[in-house]
Amino acid sequence: MENKLNKSRAFYREKDEEGDICFYYIDLDQAANSNTDIIKLNEVTVEDSKR
């Protein structure tokens, strides 16, 4: 049986020290792990889901 990860992520945004809005995500598959990483996104793309 192939092992597949559930790519569940939570996204949020906040202002950094310079006042710029930054986007972050948390990998929810690691939520049970105490070493869950919060990843800062360098580039954000918005797609229209109605296409």
Explain what the structure shows.
This protein has one domain. The mean pLDDT is 74. The protein is flat, with a radius of gyration of 14 Å. By secondary structure, the chain is mainly beta. Strands 1-2-3 form a 3-stranded antiparallel β-sheet, with no helix packed on it. It has strands at residues 9-15, 21-27, 38-41.
Short overview:
By secondary structure, the protein is an all-beta fold.
Topology, please?
Blueprint: E1 9-15, E2 21-27, E3 38-41
Antiparallel strand pairs: 1-2, 2-3
The SSE order reads EEE
Describe the largest sheet: 3 strands, antiparallel
Helical proportion, percent range: under 10%
Placed side by side, the strands forming the largest sheet appear as 1-2-3
- Runs in which pLDDT lies below 50 for 5 or more consecutive residues are none
The share of residues in extended strands comes to 35-45%
Average residue pLDDT:
74
Count all strands and give the number. Answer: 3
Whole-number total of structural domains: 1
End-to-end span in angstroms?
34 Å
What overall form do the CA principal axes indicate?
flat
- How many separate helices? 0
List keywords for this structure.
single chain, 51 residues, mainly beta, 3-stranded antiparallel sheet, 0% helix
